[in-house]
Design brief:
Length: about 120
């Protein structure tokens, strides 16, 4: 069985220690922030993150500043934009008010007439 390193547990456990800063591999950082490692590599390529330190073998090691930068950038990219403010509604024009009154009166006449006809049919 392969044991998977829990970067999140390490992150939480290392906050109070006075030892060296915690360094993460690309995979560990991806698990910690909930992103695919290739996304993190893309952030580096696009210049959204500063280049991490590297091991003698050339492997990247990310620190807490990278975690904070990714989480800050991810939040700003995925927050829904606030809707533009609604302009104040102008009062309806007199012609529009008259048209509304006319339509309302015709609807009342129509429904009243329909009710009278329905009552007359029931009375037969």
């Amino acid at each position: 069985m392969i044991k998977v390193h829990d970067a999140e547990a390490d992150h939480q456990g290392s906050e109070g220690s006075g030892s060296q800063p915690r360094l993460y591999t690309t995979r560990q950082l991806g698990r910690l922030v909930g992103m695919h490692p290739n996304t993190i590599k893309g952030f580096l390529k696009e210049g959204w993150l500063h280049e991490p330190c590297r091991t003698p073998g050339g492997h990247r090691r990310f620190d807490e500043t990278h975690v904070a930068a990714i989480l800050g950038r991810y939040r700003t990219l995925h927050e829904p934009p606030s809707p533009p403010p609604k302009p104040p509604e102008a009062p309806p024009a007199p012609e529009e008010l008259e048209a509304r009154r006319f339509i309302r009166a015709r609807l009342l006449e129509f429904t009243a007439g329909r009710e009278k006809r329905a009552a007359a049919r029931r009375a037969r």
